[in-house]
Amino acid sequence: MKGIILVMTITFGAGLLTGKLLFQGAAAGHGLAPLSSMSSMSSMSDEYLAPITSAELSLPATTKFQCDGRQHCSQMTSKAEAQFFLENCPETKMDGDNDGEACERQF
Question: Is the pTM of this model over 0.90?
Answer without folding.
Answer: no
